[in-house]
Amino acid sequence: xxxxxxxxxxxxxxxxxxxxxxxxxxxxxxxxxxxxxxxxxxxxxxxxxxxxxxxxxxxxxxxxxxxxxxxxxxxxxxxxxxxxxxxxxxxxxxxxxxxxxxxxxxx
Length: 107
Fold this sequence. Notes:
The protein has one domain (about 10-100): Thrombin, subunit H, CATH 2.40.10. Helix content is about 15%, strand content about 50%. The chain has 2 helices and 7 strands, in the order βββββββαα. It has helices at about 90-100, 105, and strands at about 10, 15-20, 25-35, 35-40, 50-60, 60-75, 75-85. The protein has a 6-stranded antiparallel beta barrel with strand order 2-3-4-7-6-5.
């Protein structure tokens, strides 16, 4: 069952991931994005429930977020739900609009 609150759109961007508890840094990329979360492609995904700081970079713009791993698949990646992204919402909304998201999808 799909429990997403908003649609995800295919979106490739580089992302720096920091595991909050251990301050472990890793570089990865996204494969999709929504207002509530994203999917991070990585061979070494972190366990479900892990809190992350994320910094997305796309077209010379950055979005910073705090998130939590809600799905982890070894050698593939992890689904992340955003817990905090307030200061980056205008940029995130701009990216989603460019991907074809409607105003309804954003709210």
